[in-house]
């Protein structure tokens, strides 16, 4: 096998490198994100902090007032959507690394076998759909998570409690990366399609005009 960098001078090769990089960024940003939730209840001697992290499935009784039976609990389970998003990123990374290897070392085989570009096109389509669906689901779950950890929610549920959180910038970044990955995989469909025999058959043999 000889290293061939010619495919990476074409859009299909460049897109694969970008897909690999941004897939890694998307799932690591999500899996490594955590938010600190702090409550200050008048029945407790000092504020208490809880750390909420991936996969974002939790139930915490953050304040209990024995004097008037008031309590504040925060609970959410968005683990399914979080794991779906992360799994999409991991699988996209693995496939991206694999197809980069094929382009770099097996490009002649890739172009000589009709089945390989066709399989590449099909899998690219599947990953575009996965990125769209997982990003949409994760956006919905992120909204639910932010609502539960909203300090205003604590005030509404327990008037003697005060709460704060450390922010959700990491989640916002993961959502942007998710939809960016969808754009990268969807826009790559045209470049991969041009390698299939479907496109090449439609083009037909070149015609030389008769003078």
Automatic annotation (TrEMBL):
Residues 7-197 form the MARVEL domain. It comes from Culicoides sonorensis. InterPro entries: Marvel, Synaptophysin/porin. It is found in: Membrane. One of its GO terms (cellular component) is synaptic vesicle membrane. PROSITE patterns: MARVEL. This is CSON002580 protein. The lineage of its organism: Eukaryota, Metazoa, Ecdysozoa, Arthropoda, Hexapoda. It is a multi-pass membrane protein. PANTHER family: MARVEL DOMAIN-CONTAINING PROTEIN, SYNAPTOPHYSIN. Belongs to the synaptophysin/synaptobrevin family. The chain crosses the membrane at residues 84-106, 118-139, 175-193.
